[in-house]
Amino acid sequence: xxxxxxxxxxxxxxxxxxxxxxxxxxxxxxxxxxxxxxxxxxxxxxxxxxxxxxxxxxxxxxxxxxxxxxxxxxxxxxxxxxxxxxxxxxxxxxxxxxxxxxxxxxxxxxxxxxxxxxxxxxxxxxxxxxxxxxxxxxxxxxxxxxxxxxxxxxxxxxxxxxxxxxxxxxxxxxxxxxxxxxxxxxxxxxxxxxxxxxxxxxxxxxxxxxxxxxxxxxxxxxxxxxxxxxxxxxxxxxxxxxxxxxxxxxxxxxxxxxxxxxx
Length: 263
What we know:
This protein has helices spanning 47-55, 97-107, 115-125, 141-154, 171-188, 199-205, 223-228, 233-262, and strands at 7-18, 21-32, 36-40, 62-67, 70-71, 82-85, 159-163, 191-196, 208-213, 216-221. It is α/β, with parallel strands linked by helices.
């Protein structure tokens, strides 16, 4: 039985053409409420274009996007009830952690009065309260990523989109942030759509994985079913063969770290 009963997002017949090239080929998929869906694929497969269409930064050539039963295909980004965490964090370097998280709340008339209270709560929830007065340059990459996540959570979005958020981080920080991100999802009950090219990352975090290839969906299923029943040779090679390579690399790294800790 599917534990995610309610449909949160329905993408139907979505396509996009750039310079006479079909980047998204009439794709269809559903995201369930509270689900962690990873969109996995190599560079150029269309996953970033799809994310930009979902958030409202690009307009599709065909198709529709429905959220909670309402068509949002032509809505502006600020009216979609979505938040996005970018790869480069996009933090204000001249502002503290607290000010970065509070900024959007403070400039919005609807949230001005509660801005400080909401900011304080979300900073505590993601474990950044001790760093609230520090500026981004004094934070690690992982801490900066948590600030970006906190800033998004503060706006209370229905869906959070992640654009390769851990690709610039070292292995230890990525492993730590994965756990934290899943804990944040559980605490807030957020629906998360996570763009990545990293097979091991997708399998470690996702309820389902959508594997993309040249603007098409090759397979969308649970990690377990993708391992046991790959849809085609592309899924088997790009996902499973590369997953095993990454797992072997991670085992070597973990073994090395454990040995160092005992020295």
